[in-house]
């Protein structure tokens, strides 16, 4: 049984959609555990001060991971490793030792510096906690989490070696073990060590993420060795290539960092609501956007090297059509069923209906940009396949600055202009709710992302004329079917409320589930009547046994 499973995982990829669906399967497993993790956190603490500390403590370690550890990501190192090991294994081992040593010493030194500067950095970067009684707890929590970027960075480095040898299953299990480690911290370590047990659980998950790859690395005979004498000419070449990617990621992280900083000034629980909603909207993003952009990257690189622009454009159009096809219906369903989704996943325990309503409202604003976020990942991968890292960097910096500016302006406007606050509250059905100022943060984020999407799309259309027309055709069909689907689901929510009144969590789930199923059936019928090509391709792909494809695992991009 085990041998057969491993043999299946080692077979060749047969097509874009097969690889994307298999990636989506592994992403779904990881996301389910992530939702279980968030469910336990919400149940145990609710949207309040303790959960604010939990999410705020990730900010500085996460920034270290994105800025330093991304230098040793598989998407950067894998081509170097393959090139050198194909020529000379000794040179390949020397290269591995050199890069690993430089990374290891760098991240250790940076983590030590941040460890001692944590009190000062937190007051600067999370000013809402500067005079808070929870400041000391936040400082200690941040210091504990500084171990995570070290372990996850090493794991990213190891993943280049495991994927070079096509041991994809090993790394595919890493994010699953990461979430299991965090869940262990919530269930077992928190009752023993209190609040800090949560953070030791995160460290434990990071350690598992790394160590699952160690047995194969040792068996392969190319385990990296620490060298104090580093060849900087090799290192600078890697940094030169990875730096734009790192800055591109950092731009979005810094923008999110700023929004969290604004949330720290708001009502207690605002950081929790923002983070829980963001994690929920990341589920369709991971399953659709990350899966398709990761699956297409090797193919785009191949066509670019072969100077086959026609096939390059064709693959981009195909991927964009399917991203739009899947993302728009999910976006509409998330908006219509937002209360049912949030209550089912996070509800009960200390997470009350007030927390549910506010988190659902924030989620509705976030998911508006899921289509854009997914397409941005696709455009960025396309430019990386061409070796053009400056364009996405430039656009992401602009987008990050827009998010920051809008976050600040909207926050000021919310408190200065009651009409603006009333409009948002009424639109999202949270009038009379405390802490509604947090709504402006996802609004700023989504607007910035949509502008980012437009800029990427416009630039790609200029480089590859003909991209827009077929994608817009799919967008029109998907949007039309989704509106009808969403309206149907909304009507049936009221109908099923007769049978499943919102008095129990199980009833909330059944109400949303059946309303969503009816909506999906109607939406599918509309797509069939419109003779939608994507739904035919999906049906064909599901008959091609897509689970027999290799697993190409996307990089871990945050803690």
Explain what this protein looks like in three dimensions.
By secondary structure, the protein is mainly alpha-helical. The protein has a domain of 203 residues. Helices cover 80% and strands 0% of the residues. The longest helix has 37 residues. The two termini are 34 Å apart.
Number of helices: 24
Shape: globular
What summary fits the major beta sheet? none
Determine the oligomeric state from the structure.
Answer: single chain
Q: How many whole angstroms does the radius of gyration measure?
A: 23 Å
What is the typical, i.e. mean, pLDDT?
Answer: 84
Number of DSSP E strands: 0
Order of helices and strands: HHHHHHHHHHHHHHHHHHHHHHHH
Spans with pLDDT under 50 lasting ≥5 residues? 4-17, 545-553
Percent range of helical residues: over 70%
Strand content: under 5%
Structural class: mainly alpha
- The separation of the N and C termini measures 34 Å
Quickly describe the structure.
With 559 residues, this protein is mainly α. It has 24 helices and no strands.
What's the SSE blueprint?
Blueprint: H1 2-9, H2 16-45, H3 49-56, H4 59-67, H5 74-87, H6 89-125, H7 135-145, H8 147-164, H9 168-172, H10 174-193, H11 195-211, H12 214-220, H13 232-263, H14 270-305, H15 309-336, H16 338-346, H17 353-367, H18 370-385, H19 390-416, H20 418-427, H21 440-463, H22 468-496, H23 505-529, H24 533-542
Helix pairs in contact: 2-10, 2-14, 3-14, 4-8, 4-13, 5-6, 5-8, 6-7, 6-8, 6-13, 7-11, 8-11, 10-11, 13-19, 14-15, 14-17, 14-18, 15-17, 15-18, 15-22, 16-17, 16-23, 17-21, 18-21, 19-20, 19-21, 22-23
């Amino acid at each position: 049984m085990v041998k057969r499973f491993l043999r299946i995982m080692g077979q060749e990829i047969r097509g874009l959609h097969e690889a994307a669906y298999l990636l989506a399967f592994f992403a779904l497993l990881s996301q389910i555990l992530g939702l279980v993790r968030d469910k336990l956190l919400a149940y145990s603490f609710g949207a309040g001060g303790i959960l604010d500390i939990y999410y705020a403590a990730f900010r500085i370690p996460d920034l270290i991971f994105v800025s330093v550890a991304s230098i040793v990501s598989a998407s950067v190192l894998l081509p170097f490793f393959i090139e050198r090991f194909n020529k000379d294994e000794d040179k390949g081992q020397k290269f591995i030792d050199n890069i690993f040593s430089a990374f290891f010493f760098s991240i250790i030194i940076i983590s030590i510096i941040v460890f001692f500067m944590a009190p000062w950095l937190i007051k600067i970067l999370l000013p809402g906690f500067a005079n808070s009684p929870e400041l000391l707890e936040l400082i200690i929590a941040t210091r504990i989490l500084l171990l995570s970027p070290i372990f996850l960075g090493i794991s990213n480095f190891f993943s280049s070696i495991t994927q070079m040898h096509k041991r994809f299953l090993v790394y595919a299990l890493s994010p699953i073990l990461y979430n299991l480690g965090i869940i262990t911290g919530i269930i077992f370590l928190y009752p023993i060590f209190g609040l800090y047990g949560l953070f030791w659980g995160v460290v434990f998950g990071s350690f598992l993420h790394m160590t699952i790859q160690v047995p194969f690395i040792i068996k392969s005979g190319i385990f990296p060795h620490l060298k104090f004498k580093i060849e900087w000419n090799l290192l600078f070449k890697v940094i030169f290539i990875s730096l734009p990617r790192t800055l591109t990621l950092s731009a979005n992280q810094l923008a999110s960092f700023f929004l969290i900083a604004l949330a720290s000034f708001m009502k207690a629980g605002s950081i929790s609501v923002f983070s829980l909603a963001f994690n929920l909207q990341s589920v369709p993003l991971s399953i659709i956007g990350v899966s398709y952009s990761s699956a297409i990257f090797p193919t785009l690189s191949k066509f670019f090297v072969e100077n086959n622009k026609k096939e390059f454009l064709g693959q981009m159009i195909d991927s964009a059509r399917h991203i739009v096809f899947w993302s728009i219906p999910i976006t509409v369903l998330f908006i219509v069923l937002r209360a049912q989704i949030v209550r089912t996943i996070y509800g009960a325990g200390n997470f009350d209906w007030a927390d549910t309503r506010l988190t659902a409202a924030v989620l509705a604003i976030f998911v508006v940009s899921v289509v854009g976020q997914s397409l941005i990942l696709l455009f960025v991968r396309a430019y990386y396949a061409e070796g053009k890292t400056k364009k996405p960097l430039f656009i992401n910096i602009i987008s990050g600055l827009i998010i920051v500016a809008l976050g600040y302006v909207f926050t000021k406007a919310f408190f200065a202009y009651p009409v603006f606050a009333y409009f948002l509250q009424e639109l999202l059905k949270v009038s009379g709710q405390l802490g509604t100022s947090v709504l402006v943060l996802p609004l700023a984020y989504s607007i910035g992302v949509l502008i980012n999407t437009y800029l990427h799309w416009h630039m790609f259309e200029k480089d590859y004329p003909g991209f827009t027309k077929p994608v817009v055709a799919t967008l029109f069909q998907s949007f039309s079917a989704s509106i009808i689907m969403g309206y149907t689901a909304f009507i049936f929510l009221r109908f099923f409320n007769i049978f499943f009144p919102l008095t129990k969590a199980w009833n909330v789930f059944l109400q949303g589930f059946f309303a969503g199923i009816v909506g999906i059936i109607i939406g599918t019928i509309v797509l069939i009547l419109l003779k939608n090509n994507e739904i035919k391709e999906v049906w064909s792909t599901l008959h091609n046994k897509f689970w027999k494809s290799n697993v190409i695992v996307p990089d871990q991009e945050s803690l």
